[in-house]
Backbone:
């Protein structure tokens, strides 16, 4: 091979790309003008090599340029997403704080109601005990009265048959 001609593989290695990339990028008109076949290989003349190099160097420059701007755009997008997330999280924290304050107030009210209920229950139990004591005293008094009333009857019951018959 002469110095002027290079195979697609050699040019691809020199540019750091694949043979397929060269085949895809190069049009049929360039192939007809600058490619020649030597056995199983395609050889590219100097002018064709320069065209292909300029295509890939230009596209590589554009990709780098786009890559940088894409990176900048990605960074800006990420920053805006992060700032939006921060705002959303701050809002959620504020809502959660308000809910917690509301729940704390509810807990305080429920605790007061529970204390009041316990006090009322104790008072009711004391009244019930007092009523029970009062009922027991009344029962004792009625029992003692009924015993007093029963005692004269029992004296009649102690008499024998003849005494009951003649002495009423």
Residues:
């Amino acid at each position: 091979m002469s110095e002027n001609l290079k195979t697609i593989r050699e040019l691809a290695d020199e540019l750091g790309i694949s043979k397929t990339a060269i085949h895809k990028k190069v049009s049929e008109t360039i192939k007809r003008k600058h490619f020649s076949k030597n056995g199983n290989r395609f050889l590219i003349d100097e002018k064709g090599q320069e065209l292909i190099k300029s295509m890939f160097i230009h596209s590589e420059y554009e990709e780098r340029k786009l890559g940088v701007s894409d990176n900048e755009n990605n960074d800006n997008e990420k920053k805006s997403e992060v700032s939006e997330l921060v705002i959303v999280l701050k809002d959620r924290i504020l809502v959660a704080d308000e809910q917690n304050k509301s729940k704390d107030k509810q807990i305080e009210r429920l605790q007061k109601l529970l204390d009041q209920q316990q006090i009322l229950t104790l008072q009711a139990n004391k009244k019930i005990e007092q009523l029970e004591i009062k009922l027991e005293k009344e029962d004792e008094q009625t029992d003692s009265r009924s015993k007093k009333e029963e005692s004269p009857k029992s004296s009649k019951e102690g008499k024998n048959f003849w005494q009951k018959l003649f002495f009423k």
Remarks:
- The helical segments are 8-15, 19-25, 28-34, 46-157, 161-166.
- The chain has five helices and three strands.
- The first strand starts at residue 6 and ends at 7.
- The beta strands are 6-7, 35-38, 41-44.
